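Morning F.,

Quick status update on the modeling queue. The single chain you submitted on Monday has been processed. Sequence for confirmation:
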Amino acid sequence: MSIFSDVPQAPPVAVFKLTADFREDGHPQKVNLGVGAYRTDDCQPWVLPVVKKVERLIVEDNSLNHEYLPILGLPEFRSASSKVALGDDSDAIKDNRVGGVQALGGTGALRIGAEFLRRWYNGVNNTATPVYVSAPTWENHNSVFADAGFKDIRPYHYWDAAKRGLDLDGLLDDLEKAPEHSIFVLHACAHNPTGTDPKPEEWKKIAEIMKRRNLFVFFDSAYQGFASGSLDKDAWAIRYFVSEGFELFVAQSFSKNFGLYNERVGNLTVVAKDSENLSRILSQMEKIVRTTWSNPPSQGARIVSKTLNCPELFAEWSGNVKTMADRVLLMRDQLKTKLQALGTPGTWDHITQQIGMFSFTGLNPKQVEYMIKEKHVYLMASGRINMCGLTTKNIDYVAQSIHDTVTKVQ
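Structure tokens below.
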């Protein structure tokens, strides 16, 4: 008898199970709209031209070696990452109260931040501090904070299914009712899974309540530049909160906007009250990292760092990001146009009103099941689709499939 005999079989991760099912499907017109990764119009992964260029520069740089990086990561990567999030002219950076922790992707940044908050936020060992995540949210948010030790994870209103948009009143009401010092996980841009973001005036209302009620802001910024094509526009919410004097965390991922999915390049930007507070915070972050992965890997961080710190490469990267964002915007416009031309029941304006990689279609679980089994179009049970999975070659089939599904399945 094995000592592990009583270990239960864990359920598969939904998005990866969906991809596995897609691969096994032999249908010639099958389409994968599930996985959250950019695809070209040929439905292939895209290695950004600027990334190829920087990789060659790294290979030819004889000064580089494979020594350990500092525990908190490559210094020039950390500082450049924080600058991208907060802006070149950030007063917080000028005041020396901003620091970074290189992490294993955005998930690693969230986890290190969560571990720190559980140990040190508003006192020691705060397992009972409420952590609020949007309803719906990226599935990993709940798990990351639960595994970090938080016992009270609550949803806050976000998606209004009836109008297929933001439930601002519900969100503001939840902010007002949340216990003081609660932690709120906010999507900086391109909300996953709905693709619905607050407008600037709505962000201001959110910030006013959070400031007045002493709520902690933890931004998840996985898609900067990917939503609108503008790095600055997509960081507006983060920069506004910082300008309002918030102490906050920002979990940054460079998986999408650099196409570095398997390099796991992330950064946790910390905005503190002052430089003395920042020093103490980072000293504790260092202890957490030491017992988690000890030292981060260098390759992806060097690619991002060299790109962000060179004006010419930065400009080229910005253009690459806009190329990806523009293709997503084009697919949104074409899908809505085709559904309207087919006379598909319901309103489809939300497809172009939403932003970023994902769209919350409004399809219910029965309709999703029909799409997968009968049409071989794979999407998440929530009705979320990855707009990058659409191409000029499959969009007619997908639109017709949605039309048939909505018409036949209620």
